[in-house]
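User: I'm putting together a small comparison set for a docking exercise, and I want a reference complex before I start. The sequence is below, and the ligand is adenosine-5'-diphosphate. Could you produce the 3D structure with the ligand included, as structure tokens?
Assistant: Of course. I'll restate your input first, then give the structure tokens for the complex.
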Amino acid sequence: MVPVISMPLESTLVGVIMTRELQRNGLALAISNATGACTLTAGPTSSSGLQDIIIQTVDLHRSYRIGRHSVEVLHGIDLTIRRGETVFLCGPSGAGKTTLLYTLAGLERPERGTVRIDGTDLYALPRRGQAQFRNRHIGYVFQNYHLLPELTALENVAVPGAVAGLDTTEAAMRALEWVGLAHRAQHLPAELSGGEQQRAAIARAIVNQPKVLFADEPTGNLDSQNGAAVIALLTRLAQESGMTLVVVTHDLGLATAGDRTLVIRDGTLLADA
Ligand SMILES: Nc1ncnc2c1ncn2[C@@H]1O[C@H](COP(=O)(O)OP(=O)(O)O)[C@@H](O)[C@H]1O
Ligand SMILES: [Mg+2]
């Protein structure tokens, strides 16, 4: 459905503000003026320009309190990622990769700065709104899988749907098929290999078909063959679905499989590699 908004000509300023808001949300406007009224017709935007930015951070600062001291871990991160991009984030241990990923995904509020995901200022939303936004639009693959040990692979993958109040058993089965794990649907995590647990965690992250998928060292606990297979799986899923993918890795050999490789050191983003 194409929304149409009519307004008197003198509301030009309102129109300009609305135009900006709609563009932030990925909509373009056609403005016609034939009948003395100004009609704004909103439709999907073209594949260029501002509206193609899906992740944008401005001056992101994040600190941890250790005893009585506050230690800053992210020192003002400015980052822009385009819709559909696959980006690898590299850096030494302790550089702030996980902290940055958590902050981008709405899991850790920065002390300063903003995170916009597809036009939405994530931390400006109320807590409940943030959780809903994450559930609908953001997938997250944790370094240690974080599968619930007492649930089968299928039940684990169905959890995000259940949180949204939906019965997503069918979608969960489909997601297991996407990652090549349908034959392990009824297995408990303990009955799966590391690579299979990682694939179940990926299926859970994509079951709600998020706009953005974050994966934190998804190959960290895998041998090189399984690691390469997981990276190939993630990049294929992203390509096929148009999903934006941000992967943390400290394996530089794997980090060239995307559109861009970012390097973070001591909480500062270095130039794109
Ligand atoms: N919850 C926490 N409390 C205190 N310090 C933390 C916490 N999480 C991370 N840090 C510190 O922040 C820095 C960056 O951590 P992290 O983002 O996990 O780095 P990376 O993922 O690049 O290894 C490290 O020095 C780490 O010790
Ligand atoms: Mg980490």
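Residues 140 and 214 are 5 Å apart (CA to CA). The chain has a mean pLDDT of 82.
User: Thanks, that's exactly what I needed.
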